[in-house]
Amino acid sequence: MDLLWTVLLMVLVCSEAQNMINVTGELGQDVNLTCSFSSPDIIWFMEVQNRIRAGIGRTYSSDPIYFSPDLETKYSVSENKLLVRNLSAEDSRFYFCGRKDDGRTVYGDTIRLTTSK
Ligand SMILES: *[C@@H]1O[C@H](CO)[C@@H](O)[C@H](O)[C@H]1NC(C)=O
Ligand SMILES: *[C@@H]1O[C@H](CO)[C@@H](O)[C@H](O)[C@H]1NC(C)=O
Ligand SMILES: *[C@@H]1O[C@H](CO)[C@@H](O)[C@H](O)[C@H]1NC(C)=O
């Protein structure tokens, strides 16, 4: 998890929310979160504590990277989607998509995922 925490410290804060989308998924099911950016290179983050974002993965066209190897069993990034597998209560949180623009991260949607039975 060291890399995850490194990334986490790098992506601190930034509170401007663009689109706010609510998504509900059933516990134990998989759910796709969709980013409204049509960029071939989308970065996904999740809120791990109030206003602290951790990177999940980046699509890099079709050669995705994950910011920590253990994230890859839980999440899958492809095109403009983040697949969250086997939902549990801890998956209820905010997710953010963004893209790199001249080295800066430009945030797109804020997605609030909630779980239901
Ligand atoms: C999303 O859910 C929150 C909390 O339930 C609510 O305050 C907000 O209005 C909802 N937004 C949309 C776009 O449905
Ligand atoms: C999520 O999206 C991917 C790619 O479009 C698709 O193959 C998969 O079936 C979707 N899964 C769910 C649970 O919607
Ligand atoms: C889904 O998560 C539950 C715990 O939340 C676990 O017991 C179960 O084995 C997981 N299922 C799969 C297919 O990974």
TrEMBL record:
User: Which keywords are on file for this protein?
Assistant: Signal
Residues annotated as coiled-coil are none
Q: Which residues form the signal peptide?
A: 1-17
Q: Which residues form the Immunoglobulin domain?
A: 20-116
UniProt cross-references to Pfam families, sorted A to Z: V-set
Gene3D superfamilies in the record: Immunoglobulins
Designated name of the protein: Immunoglobulin domain-containing protein
Give the source species. Ilyodon furcidens
